[in-house]
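We emphasize that the prediction below concerns an isolated chain of 331 residues; any contacts that depend on oligomerization or on bound cofactors are therefore not represented. The input was used exactly as deposited, without trimming of termini.
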Amino acid sequence: MRRTLAAPAVLLVLAMVAAIHVSASNNFGVTIEFYRDAHKQAEMMAAAGVGWVRVDLAWSAAEPEPGRYDFLIWDRFLDSFEPVGIRTLFILDYGNRLYEDGMPPSTASGRAAFAAFAAAAARHFRGRAAWEIWNEPNLPQFWAGSPDPEAYVALARAAATAIRREDPRAWILGPSLGGGTFDFKYLDATFALGLLDIVDAVSVHPYGAAYPEAASSFYDEVRRRIAHYAPDLDIPVVVSEWGYAVEGLGREKQAEYLLRALETNRRSGIPLTIWYNWQEPITPWHSFGLLDVRGQPKPAYLALKSSELRERGDEGRRGQDTAPRRPHRPR
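Result of the prediction step, given as a token string:
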């Protein structure tokens, strides 16, 4: 039996869209996972104004044997998304058991292997994807062992150099700062070690915002630090992951938070927002999705789609590409 939203829920979604006038457009994306077959839902994404997908390009899966790279599964994703105008942000992440026992690279040889993987990916997808170096390296669950800003920046430097050698116009993000609090200590450490000379945009995950508008002061603090450590560079702040679970909010409130987050980021001048996530579940993060486990739209998806349809009605189809570009870097 197909599940549908009750009429009162639909009316509530429409009321939220009317009250909070936002648009997803090409500045908005979603995080996806392989096993959900998200590439089969590209048209559903496009209908809601999703302009980007963020997905792991896992080192261990792409390099099953030393020096042999296989990107077939990611080719399939891009072949699905590109025809409907959706762009891809690849996360180059996590260890590979072939090197340093699968731990995050912390030696010259480990970094060289990761950089070779990054170069192969950039060569294969030249001009077709943007790149984020690792996911939330400030958290022990993603930087196995103990987070190490020095090791991360060294890895980012090696990977970015390799990527730009293959694709000089590549757009590269980091440090993918995550966690339930705003980890300024880690961020300051990476900036002091030269990360701002490596990346084209500073990527953050503002889960520390108890409600969407609380993220604004966080962005201001990040920008203040950028100005302090790199006063001559114009480096944007992007949100490469953010979301709110149903627990404690409810499905309709989750939809409201999505619209409020987009409006907060619009007002704060955030050029790209990636929402977490497209479809449930991800154990243990199992209620963040725009779609439920059966692939049925939740109020958050309907609110997003209604907002996009309203925007199209107001302005017609946009002919101007508003996706973020790699900023000019003074030489």
